[in-house]
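Help needed: design a sequence for this.
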């Protein structure tokens, strides 16, 4: 099964936590529902049309935090834009705003941009190929952004091909990706490694209703960390080096080669 690997970059991001109301807190990485929207935007799938196509039975996502993330709180004015407000807006009249604290994500560690490495595969390989093709040509159908439309994102295809190796469940793995907590059997906490946990949405059902969220664990500075998992992990030979990834939904659909093979670099 071929996987499209691409970098998603930008100077700012905000991935709103679904359970916040008076303050807009952000996940430190794009949750699976955001990744679904990114893929739909690349392919030109309209809003509310892709939930079944990209549900956990049909699509696989992995995300690697490539640079440390830091937070900054700013208070923003939200203006109501319901239909009854349109006449006043057209007249450029006074619109009462509501001030809301907003958590912004910025790059840390001296990096110029946030950088999330996304791994995507679909049961229908033609969909994965189309994603890779559009990314290679830098032609997403709709503009991409990091959580809010003001935070435009840049993409770069890194790799399109199969994993170079399967790391079987139960073996130690130096993991680079965000991990679904259900798949963690044993972490190895060494000096400098700090793990954090977030509960985030996984998918939508018909009518844009959220399905039950799942818990995810990640290293706060984006460093690889050693663990034993209850599912297979997959190793990818990328131009920047080897990366080991566990997909958010579980294993890929069929057995991958266990021996190293020549990768297909984009």
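Sure. Designed sequence:
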């Amino acid at each position: 099964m071929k996987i499209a690997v691409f970098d998603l970059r930008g100077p700012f991001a905000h991935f709103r936590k679904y359970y916040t109301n008076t303050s807009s807190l952000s996940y430190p990485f794009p949750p699976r529902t955001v990744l679904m929207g990114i893929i739909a935007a690349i392919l030109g799938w309209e809003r509310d049309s892709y939930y079944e196509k990209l549900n956990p039975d049909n699509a696989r996502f992995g995300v690697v935090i490539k640079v440390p993330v830091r937070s900054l709180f700013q208070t923003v004015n939200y203006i109501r834009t319901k239909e009854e407000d349109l006449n006043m807006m057209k007249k450029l009249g006074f619109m009462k705003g509501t001030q809301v604290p907003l958590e912004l994500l910025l790059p840390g560690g001296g990096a110029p941009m946030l950088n999330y490495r996304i791994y995507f595969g679909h049961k229908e390989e033609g969909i994965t190929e189309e994603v890779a093709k559009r990314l290679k040509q830098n032609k997403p159908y709709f503009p991409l952004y990091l959580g809010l439309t003001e935070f435009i994102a840049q993409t770069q295809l890194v790799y399109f091909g199969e994993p170079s190796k399967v790391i079987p469940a139960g073996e130690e793995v130096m993991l680079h990706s965000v991990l679904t907590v259900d798949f963690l059997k044993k972490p190895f906490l060494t000096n400098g490694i700090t793990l954090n946990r977030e509960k985030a949405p996984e998918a939508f059902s018909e009518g844009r209703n959220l399905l039950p969220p799942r818990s995810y664990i990640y290293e706060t500075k984006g460093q690889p960390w050693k663990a034993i998992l209850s599912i297979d992990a997959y190793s990818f030979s990328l131009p920047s080096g080897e990366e080991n990834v566990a997909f958010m939904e579980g294993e890929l659909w069929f057995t991958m080669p266990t021996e190293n093979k020549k990768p297909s670099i984009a």
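The chain has three helices and 19 strands.
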